[in-house]
Amino acid sequence: MSRQLRLGLRQPPALSRESFVEGPSNAAALAALDAWPAWPGGALVLFGPEGVGKTHLASAWAQRANAAVLSRETPEPAQVERGPAVLEDVDQGVADEALFHLINLAPRGGGLLMTARRPPTLWAAALPDLRSRLNALYVVELKEPDDQVLEGVLRNLFRERSIRPPQEVYPYLLRRMPRSVPAAREVVQRMDEAGDGPISRWLAREVLEDQSQNLDLFE
Protein backbone atom coordinates (compact mmCIF):
# COMPACT_ATOMS: atom_id res chain seq x y z
CA MET A 1 0.00 0.00 0.00
CA SER A 2 1.34 3.42 -0.91
CA ARG A 3 2.32 5.71 1.93
CA GLN A 4 1.62 9.39 2.32
CA LEU A 5 4.28 11.67 3.75
CA ARG A 6 2.68 13.96 6.31
CA LEU A 7 5.00 16.79 7.23
CA GLY A 8 3.02 18.16 10.15
CA LEU A 9 2.42 21.43 8.35
CA ARG A 10 -0.35 23.64 9.70
CA GLN A 11 -2.12 26.46 7.95
CA PRO A 12 -3.89 28.99 10.19
CA PRO A 13 -7.69 28.83 9.78
CA ALA A 14 -9.04 31.67 7.67
CA LEU A 15 -11.94 33.67 9.09
CA SER A 16 -13.01 35.42 5.92
CA ARG A 17 -16.50 35.23 4.43
CA GLU A 18 -15.04 33.48 1.37
CA SER A 19 -13.64 30.66 3.50
CA PHE A 20 -16.94 30.06 5.33
CA VAL A 21 -18.66 26.87 4.20
CA GLU A 22 -22.22 27.66 3.12
CA GLY A 23 -25.20 25.31 3.18
CA PRO A 24 -28.86 25.00 4.17
CA SER A 25 -28.01 24.91 7.89
CA ASN A 26 -26.52 28.41 7.84
CA ALA A 27 -28.36 30.04 4.91
CA ALA A 28 -30.66 32.09 7.17
CA ALA A 29 -27.72 33.48 9.14
CA LEU A 30 -25.86 34.48 5.98
CA ALA A 31 -28.97 36.19 4.59
CA ALA A 32 -29.39 38.11 7.85
CA LEU A 33 -25.79 39.31 7.80
CA ASP A 34 -26.11 40.37 4.17
CA ALA A 35 -29.16 42.46 5.12
CA TRP A 36 -26.98 44.76 7.26
CA PRO A 37 -27.36 47.63 7.96
CA ALA A 38 -31.13 47.14 7.66
CA TRP A 39 -31.42 45.11 10.88
CA PRO A 40 -34.62 45.69 12.88
CA GLY A 41 -33.63 47.78 15.90
CA GLY A 42 -30.06 47.99 14.63
CA ALA A 43 -28.99 44.70 16.20
CA LEU A 44 -28.70 41.02 15.25
CA VAL A 45 -28.12 37.97 17.45
CA LEU A 46 -26.58 34.83 15.94
CA PHE A 47 -27.01 31.86 18.26
CA GLY A 48 -26.20 28.18 18.00
CA PRO A 49 -24.08 25.40 19.47
CA GLU A 50 -20.30 25.36 19.66
CA GLY A 51 -18.45 25.17 16.38
CA VAL A 52 -21.18 26.15 13.92
CA GLY A 53 -19.35 29.28 12.77
CA LYS A 54 -20.55 32.13 14.99
CA THR A 55 -17.07 33.55 15.58
CA HIS A 56 -16.10 33.00 11.95
CA LEU A 57 -19.09 34.98 10.70
CA ALA A 58 -18.69 37.66 13.37
CA SER A 59 -15.04 38.16 12.37
CA ALA A 60 -15.91 38.32 8.68
CA TRP A 61 -18.69 40.84 9.32
CA ALA A 62 -16.42 42.93 11.55
CA GLN A 63 -13.92 43.18 8.69
CA ARG A 64 -16.64 44.14 6.23
CA ALA A 65 -18.29 46.72 8.52
CA ASN A 66 -15.04 47.97 10.08
CA ALA A 67 -16.66 47.13 13.40
CA ALA A 68 -15.20 47.44 16.88
CA VAL A 69 -14.85 44.19 18.83
CA LEU A 70 -16.19 44.75 22.34
CA SER A 71 -15.00 43.14 25.55
CA ARG A 72 -17.69 41.09 27.25
CA GLU A 73 -16.28 41.99 30.68
CA THR A 74 -16.04 45.75 30.06
CA PRO A 75 -18.10 46.72 27.00
CA GLU A 76 -18.14 50.43 26.27
CA PRO A 77 -21.55 51.67 25.06
CA ALA A 78 -19.88 54.72 23.50
CA GLN A 79 -18.19 52.46 20.95
CA VAL A 80 -21.58 51.27 19.69
CA GLU A 81 -22.70 54.86 19.32
CA ARG A 82 -19.62 55.69 17.22
CA GLY A 83 -19.99 52.82 14.76
CA PRO A 84 -20.75 49.12 14.16
CA ALA A 85 -19.67 46.72 16.88
CA VAL A 86 -19.44 43.00 17.70
CA LEU A 87 -20.04 41.41 21.10
CA GLU A 88 -19.52 37.65 21.40
CA ASP A 89 -20.68 35.03 23.92
CA VAL A 90 -23.25 37.38 25.40
CA ASP A 91 -25.06 34.57 27.23
CA GLN A 92 -21.85 33.89 29.18
CA GLY A 93 -22.45 37.06 31.14
CA VAL A 94 -22.62 40.80 30.40
CA ALA A 95 -23.60 43.41 32.98
CA ASP A 96 -27.30 44.19 32.64
CA GLU A 97 -26.93 47.95 32.52
CA ALA A 98 -24.13 47.84 29.95
CA LEU A 99 -26.06 45.45 27.71
CA PHE A 100 -29.19 47.59 27.99
CA HIS A 101 -27.28 50.67 26.80
CA LEU A 102 -25.54 48.76 24.00
CA ILE A 103 -28.86 47.60 22.57
CA ASN A 104 -30.41 51.05 22.89
CA LEU A 105 -27.48 52.74 21.13
CA ALA A 106 -27.15 50.16 18.35
CA PRO A 107 -29.32 52.03 15.79
CA ARG A 108 -27.21 55.19 16.13
CA GLY A 109 -23.84 53.62 15.32
CA GLY A 110 -24.72 51.41 12.39
CA GLY A 111 -25.29 48.01 13.96
CA LEU A 112 -24.54 45.66 16.84
CA LEU A 113 -23.83 41.97 16.10
CA MET A 114 -24.05 39.62 19.09
CA THR A 115 -23.30 35.91 19.31
CA ALA A 116 -24.38 33.33 21.89
CA ARG A 117 -25.13 29.65 22.29
CA ARG A 118 -28.68 30.31 23.48
CA PRO A 119 -31.36 32.69 22.20
CA PRO A 120 -31.73 36.00 24.09
CA THR A 121 -35.09 34.91 25.53
CA LEU A 122 -33.03 32.53 27.70
CA TRP A 123 -30.34 35.02 28.76
CA ALA A 124 -30.28 36.07 32.39
CA ALA A 125 -31.62 39.60 32.94
CA ALA A 126 -32.54 41.15 36.27
CA LEU A 127 -33.59 44.49 34.78
CA PRO A 128 -37.19 44.40 33.46
CA ASP A 129 -36.34 46.95 30.75
CA LEU A 130 -33.46 44.77 29.57
CA ARG A 131 -35.70 41.71 29.46
CA SER A 132 -38.12 43.50 27.14
CA ARG A 133 -35.23 44.54 24.88
CA LEU A 134 -33.86 41.01 24.74
CA ASN A 135 -37.24 39.53 23.88
CA ALA A 136 -37.58 41.96 20.96
CA LEU A 137 -34.14 41.41 19.38
CA TYR A 138 -33.71 40.21 15.79
CA VAL A 139 -32.50 36.61 16.20
CA VAL A 140 -31.23 33.98 13.74
CA GLU A 141 -30.14 30.44 14.59
CA LEU A 142 -27.01 28.77 13.20
CA LYS A 143 -27.89 25.07 13.16
CA GLU A 144 -25.72 21.97 13.35
CA PRO A 145 -24.07 21.37 9.96
CA ASP A 146 -25.86 19.59 7.14
CA ASP A 147 -23.92 17.22 4.85
CA GLN A 148 -22.83 20.01 2.51
CA VAL A 149 -21.41 22.09 5.34
CA LEU A 150 -19.89 19.17 7.22
CA GLU A 151 -18.05 17.92 4.14
CA GLY A 152 -16.73 21.43 3.48
CA VAL A 153 -15.55 21.68 7.09
CA LEU A 154 -13.77 18.33 6.83
CA ARG A 155 -12.05 19.44 3.63
CA ASN A 156 -10.92 22.67 5.27
CA LEU A 157 -9.64 20.86 8.36
CA PHE A 158 -7.64 18.39 6.28
CA ARG A 159 -6.33 21.25 4.13
CA GLU A 160 -5.12 23.11 7.22
CA ARG A 161 -3.00 20.03 8.00
CA SER A 162 -1.77 19.74 4.38
CA ILE A 163 -3.58 16.41 3.95
CA ARG A 164 -5.46 15.28 0.83
CA PRO A 165 -7.53 12.18 1.63
CA PRO A 166 -8.99 10.01 -1.14
CA GLN A 167 -12.47 11.15 -2.17
CA GLU A 168 -14.05 8.00 -0.71
CA VAL A 169 -13.10 9.10 2.81
CA TYR A 170 -15.63 11.94 2.85
CA PRO A 171 -18.89 10.03 2.24
CA TYR A 172 -17.65 7.31 4.61
CA LEU A 173 -17.16 9.85 7.43
CA LEU A 174 -20.39 11.71 6.71
CA ARG A 175 -22.45 8.54 7.07
CA ARG A 176 -20.92 7.53 10.38
CA MET A 177 -19.41 10.40 12.39
CA PRO A 178 -21.17 12.57 15.00
CA ARG A 179 -22.94 15.54 13.40
CA SER A 180 -20.96 18.47 14.73
CA VAL A 181 -17.96 20.61 13.87
CA PRO A 182 -16.10 19.76 17.11
CA ALA A 183 -16.52 16.08 16.20
CA ALA A 184 -15.14 16.75 12.71
CA ARG A 185 -12.16 18.54 14.22
CA GLU A 186 -11.47 15.60 16.53
CA VAL A 187 -11.79 13.05 13.72
CA VAL A 188 -9.31 14.91 11.51
CA GLN A 189 -6.88 15.38 14.38
CA ARG A 190 -6.96 11.70 15.30
CA MET A 191 -6.54 10.59 11.71
CA ASP A 192 -3.56 12.92 11.34
CA GLU A 193 -1.98 11.66 14.56
CA ALA A 194 -2.53 7.99 13.76
CA GLY A 195 0.90 7.71 12.12
CA ASP A 196 2.66 8.31 8.84
CA GLY A 197 0.63 5.73 6.91
CA PRO A 198 -1.96 6.62 4.28
CA ILE A 199 -5.13 8.53 5.09
CA SER A 200 -7.78 6.06 3.97
CA ARG A 201 -11.28 4.78 4.56
CA TRP A 202 -9.78 2.01 6.68
CA LEU A 203 -8.06 4.53 8.93
CA ALA A 204 -11.32 6.46 9.18
CA ARG A 205 -13.07 3.28 10.31
CA GLU A 206 -10.43 2.63 12.98
CA VAL A 207 -10.71 6.17 14.33
CA LEU A 208 -14.51 6.08 14.45
CA GLU A 209 -14.56 2.67 16.09
CA ASP A 210 -12.15 3.94 18.72
CA GLN A 211 -14.33 6.98 19.30
CA SER A 212 -17.45 4.87 19.65
CA GLN A 213 -15.82 3.33 22.73
CA ASN A 214 -15.33 6.80 24.23
CA LEU A 215 -18.79 8.34 23.99
CA ASP A 216 -17.85 11.26 26.23
CA LEU A 217 -15.35 12.48 23.64
CA PHE A 218 -17.84 14.85 22.02
CA GLU A 219 -19.76 15.94 25.10
Task: Tell me about this structure.
- The protein is α/β, with parallel strands linked by helices.
- The chain folds into 2 domains: 27-141, P-loop containing nucleotide triphosphate hydrolases (Rossmann fold); 147-218.
- It has 9 helices and 5 strands, in the order αβαβαβαβαβαααα.
- It has helices spanning 27-34, 54-65, 77-82, 96-109, 128-135, 147-160, 169-176, 181-193, 201-212; strands spanning 43-47, 68-69, 85-87, 112-116, 139-141.
- Strand 3 (85-87), helix 4 and strand 4 (112-116) form a beta-alpha-beta unit.
- Helix 6 runs parallel beside helix 8.
- It is elongated.
Write the layout of secondary structure elements.
Blueprint: H1 27-34, E1 43-47, H2 54-65, E2 68-69, H3 77-82, E3 85-87, H4 96-109, E4 112-116, H5 128-135, E5 139-141, H6 147-160, H7 169-176, H8 181-193, H9 201-212
Parallel strand pairs: 1-4, 1-5, 2-3, 3-4
